[in-house]
Design goal:
Blueprint (H helix, E strand, L loop, with lengths): L1 E3 L2 E3 L7 H6 L7 E6 L2 E4 L13 E6 L5
């Protein structure tokens, strides 16, 4: 089990950030997420494996001026 933005979600061994994001019903583009207090940037989403019981926060890209 993981906590994603405060909500419990199922976890599986070997789950990457990319796999997690593909399973969401969400159209946001994320440049970085926070996993257990560590920031993981988009170039590392394919390789970064999410540990069981992780606390994850999605940080959407913000455009403005």
């Amino acid at each position: 089990m993981i906590i994603l933005n405060g909500d419990e979600r199922p976890w599986r061994e070997g789950m990457t950030v990319t796999e997690l994001l593909k399973g969401l019903d969400d159209d946001h583009d994320y440049a970085v997420i926070r996993v257990n207090g560590k920031y993981v940037s988009k170039p590392h989403f394919d390789a970064y494996q999410i540990p069981d019981k992780a606390e994850i926060y999605l940080i959407p890209m913000v455009v403005g001026g």
